[in-house]
Amino acid sequence: MDRETLGACSRSWVKAGCAELQTPHFLPYIQTEIPYSQFFSRHLLSNRPCMFSSSFTQTWSCRSRWVGQDGKPDFHTLLHEFDETLVPVADCNTKEYNSNPKHTMSFRDFISYWRDYIQNGHSSPKGCLYLKDWHMHRAFPEHHTYTTPIYFSSDWLNEYWDTLEMDDYRFVYMGPKGSWTPFHADVFRSYSWSANICGRKKWLLYPPGQEEFLRDCCGNLAYDVTSPVMQDQHHFPRFSEACRPLEVIQEAGEILFVPSGWHHQVYNLEDTISINHNWVNGCNVDVVWKFLQGELLSVQKEIDEWRDTMDSWDHHCQVMMKSCTGIDYAEFTSFLKTIADHRISFLSCPHGNASSETLSALGPHHATFDLQRVAQVLESMLSNEDFKRVEASALGGNVEELLQEIRDTISKSTSMY
């Protein structure tokens, strides 16, 4: 990021996903390399989707190793690499709440199923199985099957979990023609990027806010927005108010950027392998904070009748929120602190700090921008009544002191760079 971009962000902050967006008439297609600042302003800050051409993935080894001359999955090579590895597999023919139930099976058994599925005309008595949400990168870090493009490299979510060495939000998907993912928005309302290694996908995308028209009479989000039941006004009373989705066909090698809060439904039109990252950064961290507040409010409403009879009611609400969303206010604070500490350390010694190639590539102005966004969210948190009731011992440090350290670092960096 350059000084001009940082200055523009500081003068006029555009909150990602907060403004009402209309479904675009076309999807911007990025054919060749563009400046990072251009993607940052046109897509990250404005929270608008785009597609990157296959030229951005042509050097990835997985596009040659995992794909045969016919453009289809190379099962022989895949078996050689992953063999008896246990993988998560979903049954696309079964609905469990608002998703598909998963079970674990060996990679070898999944490939055996997939081969039989193809030979039987893309059908099987076992149903339509879809290998999804597989943490391949974490399980096989030595494989180096792909490289994250610079445009998606400001990735706080995976930076945090890599620091803890506990988890990540990098996934591999492999599924036969006909496999699909029901209507949803990504975890924590994060961004995502999805690259097709082979095969084709069809995406149906709705901008933030449109999901409110896609709820049934009980307030539940639609499972399949293409189902005929959506036309039944008794079941989906506001469906007629929804805009038409943005329909996107993603070809082999292409990368789709899905912004925060864009609900979507995805179909594999062919036998397909894809790589997906969920990610958060300074452009959408406020959206995550807003999402968490909404999740906590839902929990509070659910157990409000026991407020006066339950000891540590606020603590129980936090526990329930974490069980539902995967994070609570204390861990979100830890997340922000980790991101801030890395940038404070980098800005104190940008040329001698080898802790992050990404921070070095994006530069000190981007690190300053990141700290500005962390500071804004921390300020909002400190004025939040529910956050004030979180036990100080759970926060792992003094948030006011962290905020002051961030402000001091921003002041110094602004004068230096």
Automatic annotation (TrEMBL):
InterPro entries, A to Z: Cupin_8 (IPR041667), JmjC_dom (IPR003347), JMJD6_ArgDemeth/LysHydrox (IPR050910)
Gene3D superfamilies linked to this entry: Cupin
Reaction(s) this enzyme catalyzes, per UniProt: L-lysyl-[protein] + 2-oxoglutarate + O2 = 4-hydroxy-L-lysyl-[protein] + succinate + CO2
GO BP term, example: positive regulation of translational termination
Alphabetical keyword list: Iron, Metal-binding, Oxidoreductase
A GO cellular component annotation in the UniProt record: cytoplasm
Pfam families per UniProt: Cupin_8
GO molecular function, one term: sequence-specific DNA binding
Residue ranges annotated for the JmjC domain, each copy included: 137-296
Cofactor list: Fe(2+)
Similarity section: Belongs to the JMJD6 family.
Name of the molecule in the record: 2-oxoglutarate and iron-dependent oxygenase JMJD4
